[in-house]
Amino acid sequence: MPKSSHFNESPPTPGKFKMEKSSYAHRLRSRSSIGKIVLWSLLALGLILLVFMRSQSLRQPGFNPTGHYFSSSYKWGGSSWEKQVRSSAKVGSRNGMTVLVTGAAGFVGIHASSALKRRGDGVVGLDNFNNYYDPSLKRARQALLEKAGVFIVEGDINDEALLRKLFELVPFTHVMHLAAQAGVRYAMENPSSYVHSNIAGFVSLLEVCKSVNPQPSIVWASSSSVYGLNSKVPFSEKDRTDQPASLYAATKKAGEEIAHTYNHIYGLSLTGLRFFTVYGPWGRPDMAYFFFTRDILKGKAIPIFEGANHGTVARDFTFIDDIVRGCLASLDTSEKSTGSGGKKKGPAQLRVYNLGNTSPVPVGDLVSILERLLKVKANRKIMTLPRNGDVQFTHANISLAHKELGYMPTTDLQTGLKKFVSWYLRFYASGKKSGS
Question: What pTM was estimated for this model as a whole?
């Protein structure tokens, strides 16, 4: 992965994309009370499911409610395992931090872990290697991190015994919580997996973090999906987020409310990052840019969605290197938690930031760029945007992140996709994976 460049001194000109006006968008403003009722109903349902699944897991050893088929009996512990954890956590720089990265074998996880390790921080990863998408890609990422000296513990964030053991071995100063059930559409197939990972898993992690001494500072991945049916652009952290368009969005919004609670009661320092359509090398196969590339090369039809009245569907595509710089800046500016022994001693830091590119690009333009890079004409199939949780557009206002984190994206979509395509062709060379 290329080295990150320095932040620029001034923010870029915001994108000029504007959503088509519609009577539906105007009607949204009159539905504030309904939106709030729906949101809190979803939160209540999530908590009920959380209690139910926890009780079931206690009754059935090895039971996993997510529907994913991965090992439910992770093997951890022992002197050799503890040695690997401690070795991976060793700090290599004078002012380095020790960071537990959950979801380390994921897309953002591998890049964030690598960047932290390169600059001298101690890093220990945690991942359950589920099969939401090809586990072999996660294993390839794991191999890359192992070469860099980062050990990934195989386990689930709902395993509080494992989490407590890790904190017993290493007094982590920070947690980069990236583990989550991703994807908007998959929530219609397996809703319980979102509650299990994004709500129950987050609570399990916070329960452990609140009780250890010293408490770590926590930076975690929220999502731009929390803006849901919000029609005001660009999306600002001050905008309403009580109209989720998908269960995934609802669980991420629930995470923000849960973070507020643990900050208020236990003094945990928490920073939520609302990622906007992250893309790049080692990405997720369920993302459009990834499977568009695959299907264009195979000659398969590419679905190009459009909104009502042929409205443009656009995304604020953000390159992985820019996202990682935002993640590291969030860690570097995070304040210490103020609790001790599970009790709050004083006010603690609570932040939320948008991390986007500020320039939405129509999905059709994304396909055009891929056509040029792959030198293959895409078989485009125009379709109406389905009501499956996807929204018509995303557009980040990053002024707060720029002001407080120095966050400044520097990679346009053409440049970023060129790097992705180069990696993709190498990794899947001649139909055989050969990542580097």
Answer: 0.84
